[in-house]
Amino acid sequence: MSHVSMILALGFVPSLGRGTPARGVAIATMRHVAARYVARELALVFTGVFALLLIVGLSARFIGFLQGAADGRFTAEALWLLLALRIPEFVQVTAPFALFLAIVLTFGRLHAEREYAVLATAGASPRRFVGWFLVLVVPVAALVAFFALVATPQARTHNAE
């Protein structure tokens, strides 16, 4: 039984008061649990993809800096400073791509395990999925904007010195 099926099975609550079912409460609780589940899955996939892309990109740049240090273009002590000054630029480039891949992979997994169909049957529309994904998309967009407008220009200025 998938996670979503268990969520839907547990979504029913006993009646409140004079035998009136608490259907509205059950649906609201189910949607909240499903939203947290989808957002958590997206956040986990994003974190993994982002870390992997950042490690690959920085290690490739580190090899280039290491070759430059071997050629005598700069000292070995400057390697770590140069690498640290490139991190904002890599975050600015890799975060949107990692987010795109995370959304595609999360939707793909939800479709492959039929969880998307279960959520759609329970009333989750594509618009609602977009709302659930915005929980992660907005902070990532703010982070990328910060790096693009503040951190990367400062790092480039410091790197030019």
Provide keyphrases for this structure.
single chain, 161 residues, mainly alpha
Backbone shape: elongated
Q: Can you summarize the main beta sheet?
A: none
Over all CA atoms, what is the radius of gyration?
Answer: 23 Å
Which secondary-structure class do the elements indicate?
mainly alpha
Percent of residues in beta strands: under 5%
* Mean pLDDT metric: 82
Share of helix, binned: over 70%
Number of domains: 1
Helices and strands, in order, run as HHHHH
Poorly predicted regions: 7-17
Number of helices: 5
How many E-type strands? 0
Span of the ends, CA to CA: 59 Å
Explain what the structure shows.
With 161 residues, this protein is mostly helical. It has one domain. It is 83% helix and 0% strand. The protein contains five helices and no strands. Helix 2 packs antiparallel against helix 3, helix 2 runs parallel beside helix 5 and helix 3 packs antiparallel against helix 5. The radius of gyration is 23 Å and the shape is elongated. About 7% of the residues have low confidence.
Task: Annotate the secondary structure layout.
Blueprint: H1 3-9, H2 23-71, H3 78-112, H4 115-121, H5 126-160
Describe the structure concisely for a colleague.
The protein is mostly helical.
